[in-house]
Amino acid sequence: MHKAGFVNIVGNPNVGKSTLMNQLVGERLSIATFKAQTTRHRIMGIVSDEECQLVFSDTPGVLKPNYKMQEMMLAFSESALADADVLLYVTDVVETPEKNKDFLDKVAKMTIPVLLLINKIDETDQKSLGNIVERWHTLLPNAEILPISAKNKFGIDMLLKRVKELLPESPAYFDKDQLTDKPARFFVSEIIREKILLYYDKEVPYSVEVVVEHFKEEEKMVHINALIYVERNSQKGIIIGHQGVALKKVSSEARKALERFFGKKIFLEIFVKVDKDWRNSQRELTNFGYNPGS
Q: Of 51 and 13, which is predicted with more confidence?
């Protein structure tokens, strides 16, 4: 008997979904930083053994959309409700349970197994955790509640065991040696975007999109040309920095991370281009891969 299924991870921004995904998949597929809105797409990570295949899917944090890109990010999260065999709803010990009630109501109506994961339990005490569990049980009475600490790997083995028990019988959906549904180019742009998130302040990282224009992998080296899109000339100046210092720093950090990811030498060139209002342009967003159906 072989089991396989789609295990989709949803929840509000900054509760630790990407950290959890990385622990479950064991590969650094989702970028996990301290800033909200880090994950903008659905990223699948595939875990296979002889008896089962788990297709994990990390989604953008659920938020009330303020512009078109956020509408499409919410669509990614909502599509995760439609095709899940098991749903992992991630919260943490500081979040208000009633936040984003509309999305929660949709989760409450689901007929598939829902595991409610209370993350960051190392940041609270037993009594407070008991109160949090009670509040969540009222909101999602059909969900199984599991306290975890994704960062410290607490509860992860127990979670994996439970997910495998809940999977339906099915042949594998992907080749057993496949780790993700995304191409290498996707991870190049995500790693560069991660460095931008870490290096620049305020709104600049959220006005940025990274596109890989050229990607050529050879036996010992990968040649990459990437474009950083920003919305305004002032942002272009900030990204480049005085005498190009800021962009050099980002390029250097990204190159090191890419060398770890690919296990090869990386030749990386990054350019910056202004594309006004790309976050509200349906055409540009589709070009950048914001298409929940894809």
A: 51
